[in-house]
Fold each of these.
Amino acid sequence: MEQSLKYSKNVNENPCHMCMPMGAILPFKGLEGSMVIIHGSQGCSTYMRRHIAEHFNEPIDVGSSSLNEKGTIYGGEANLKQALDNIIRVYNPQVIGVLTSCLAETIGEDIERITAEYRQEKGVLDYPIIAVPTPGYGGTHTEGYWLAVRQIIAQLAVPTERHDKINIILPHISPADIRELKRLLALMDIEYTLCPDFSETLDRPVARPYTKIPAGGTKLADIRAMPGAPATVQLGITAEDELSPGKYLADTFQVPLYNVPIPIGVENTDIFFRTIAAITGKSIPDSIINERGRLLDCMVDSHKYNFAGRSVVYGEPELVYSLAKTCVENGVFPEVVASGSKNERLAHLLQPVFDRYQRQVTILAEADFVQIRRKSVEAGVNIAIGHSDGRYLTEREGIPLVRVGFPIHDRVGGQRLLSVGYTGTALLLDRITNTLLETKRGKYRRTMYEQYYKPARVIS
Amino acid sequence: MDTAQAIKERELFIATKGKQKTSLKCDADSIAGCVSQRACVYCGARVVLNPITDAVHLVHGPIGCASYTWDIRGSLSSGSELYRNSFSTDLKEHDVIFGGEPKLKRAIDELVEKYQPKLIFVYSTCIVGVIGDDLEAVCKQAAAKYNIEVIPVQSSGFIGNKSAGYRAACDAIMRVVTPRKRLSRKVNSLNYLGDFNLAGEAWIIRSYLEEVGIDVNAVFTGDSSYDTLKQATAASLNIIQCAGSMNYLAKKLQEEYSIPYIQVSFLGLEDTAISLRRIAEFFGDAEIIAKTEALIERELASTRPVIDRYKGMFSGKKAAVYVGGGFKAISLIKQFREIGIDVVMVGTQTGRPEEYDTIHDLADEGTVILDDANPSELERFMTQQGAHLLVGGVKERPLAYKLGIAFIDHNHDRKHPLSGFVGAINFAKEVHSTLCSPVWDYMYDFGGDLNGTIAKV
């Protein structure tokens, strides 16, 4: 397996990742009654709002402390406090996340202190304002996401008496995926706390009256009680320890942690259900067993077509792990696996998966699309699986792209993409297989003609 | 709507025609926590310069700034595609502590070797402004080393708003133009400022001008290149479409090269015709004037009936406008009038005082006019004013849709032209496609009970 973990370069050409505060916004959108403020200049929040809005097709309100030159030189404390005042006045949120931009971090703004002072000044000591330092240069949006989840739990969770609700900590998956997990947990009759849960807030139904903050999201009381859970199931095997919310709950409150992959693919979904069943003692109902059977049926139906696939899989490490593994299970063997993150776990976790079938794979960390494109072409990749920013693989190299992950900004329905569970996997697999079939059938007549046709010899 | 939620500091930025003061506060910094729809200095600079097709656009900063602006516009090129890449020095903690200059130098070295560009723009971002990297020095050194132009763009995000970014971009363009001596004037030739060739708009306008005998010397910046920009001072007139971004450059070109400028607008039939006439008058050539009249007559004859047909379908409809600049807002009020729609709310991100005066004069009684609005205000005024349609950008679209309001995208990423006669038809078509879609008939509020009375929203 070729690896380039410590690849360092001077110029990133066509980024495969985004910045830390961008990722940190998302978990806050999965809390009930929540708003976010980015402490920094106005552009950051506007750009990120635009990016998120385009993927989810939802209004995304994010405040900014609108730091200007004065605030940058003399400190932005007054701006941040004014921002808190105005956000509370207009949105009346139950909880506020305060994130930093690279500007605020560089001028040394201590958001922990400023928000503590604010609470004191306003006499609202219990009002949850969750500060998360997210310098734009401190990591990718993936690190920002995990850090925000960890901080949310760290700042809200309190020692709680034992109860039966298991903690389920989610990575960045689609609202449709989250709803599917809830459906499956309901079929198993499981009590749980899902954190974060943006299944309704980032894919909200049309309803009247319009509310500034969408309904839904994890209840704060449930997060406070997470330390009393019998166990934590975290879909975050690639999350580094210092960013892992499940690790925090285990270390601080001794909640047993089961770190499992996103349930995409047969094996990953099996792991998910076995884990849940083992923790709760509940059995897996026939309806779910049937869904598994249908997935296997789907895999058999399409296995030959998929065996012609040579894929490149890229995006956020946690998703990439499960997608790559699903590709392997179906014979769409990845030739290139890449993430914009520096994450070192991904390669180590994937190695045994590829070893089982003795496949050579290029795994890229801190990758950009110039690298991904070059490696994909070199390896003869014929299908790409990842977010919209890989569309140049299609435009410039003719490699068709199956869109999954974030951001999807050149197609509709990013928020509705369903890929988890046995049924979700079957839907994802259909998208992959059909893309391969479309390529094959689209070229079939021409290729065969060019390859085999010769005018019949004239017999004299 | 609970107006107690309104923010006091925002009151001066909102006016109702006929009811209140005529002047509006604008051109000020956004108020913290107001969820402004505005972007930043870097954004302003990037959108203006990015359509220069054969330049390397290198963003010196952390990855986000480059990530969020990568090829998000519909600017088209007839040649190089280099501008569609997103280059970033992707600064990390180490660079912020020890300074980003070494990395920037190496980045330029790599890019020169790989792409052999004639022109590199290096954009400064927030932290670069704070850690004090000397962009000017690094660029100068690189320019000397490779004998190409490496131009710093002073676009640190916190030094103002998007307008400051426009100025930074214009300063950078002046540096591309300046080293060349004033060229001898080409007859009947103009520069077209403030068109970014979204969906080929600059090509459409050029085809009109060429038909009447006027050459487009250089476009700032749609489908432009290093070589075309170098020819800029040969034109005898500058016409400006997007005033917000290009007025400053036009003034500079007048001061330094004595090239006069006029403001034009190719949005809507009326403005397109007026603009073509004003350009023809400037050149004062009888043949150009005659050809212009012939073109206008021909185009109006074919487009008017189409527009009128649509107009008949839009009666009684009301529109809201929230766009980037004042110039576009003004044109849109007129364009909506052409298709028989009243504008009941008008706002911009970065309108200037004189633009708001014009808007105020143009608007009907009772129209709400607002500067630097936020989602909460947009929601409140669109609902209060009974708007059926909003013109805005990507961030405003989901809000409109959630409120059951039709939407027109007048942003950079659209894939159809809205300029010129053909653009006017496209505009009417787009209004029709959203306003008259059957989808709005199904926006019921079920209240969770399908069996109960279904109230239409």
Amino acid sequence: MPVTDVSHDMDTLTLTIVAEFAAPVERVWQVYADPRQLERVWGPPSYPATVVDHDLRPGGRMTYYMTSPEGEKYAGYWEIATVDEPTGFTFDDGFAHEDFTPNPALPVSHNEYRFAAHDGGTRATYVGTYPSADALQTVLDMGVVEGASSAINQIDALLAP
Amino acid sequence: MAEDDEDRADALFHALADRTRRDILRRVLAGEHSVSALAAGYEMSFAAVQKHVAVLERAGLITKRRNGREQLASGDVAAVRSVGSMLTELEHVWRGRISRIDELIAADDTTDNEES
């Protein structure tokens, strides 16, 4: 089970996830430095991601879209703030129009990813912060469909005999 | 007030006690569907599916709007989801991502041999 710790901060709307990977820090960094690897891990198989622009440098942009099972495309962008290769980077993650210009009507989350050598592998810490409960709701509604299905799965679990 | 909550819980459990209704709810939570598109997915009449949709609507789980001759149903995610569960949902998304990273890294070992 690679996820070792999860914390929810309801006051700051921050989700922190700690995971441990059986690979050196440089290898984990490659997942983010290589757009073909990044798109394989970003979206679920039912909602594949396609990375278009990829410039993992301070001030750089990453653009991507996710394709729903119905064939609808949801575009997003990362605006890279700081980069400390290979130990981490910070960025804002927002929604975009079809031409990848940021859509300011939709929320932007602030993210910090850190990778540190630990026990012969890598400890990755992912911190995502959302500006408001409404923003969190929008993020979950906009293509993070796994979220909606997990909400209903919770109800299923409740009803399971 | 408490009585209202109990009534709502009754409606909610009644609505979710049926497998087809849970399936309809899953589909409309993922996006708006017309009732006829929903009906196409089941071995039952359009009228029967319409009834299921009405039960879900009375329970406050879905909302309907008209668009010309179509009735469009969408899941009221807020009704299904408490604010406190949203971070949990996001966590679920992240667990998926992390297991995919894990698989990607694990696949290196099998391709290393080809590189030599």
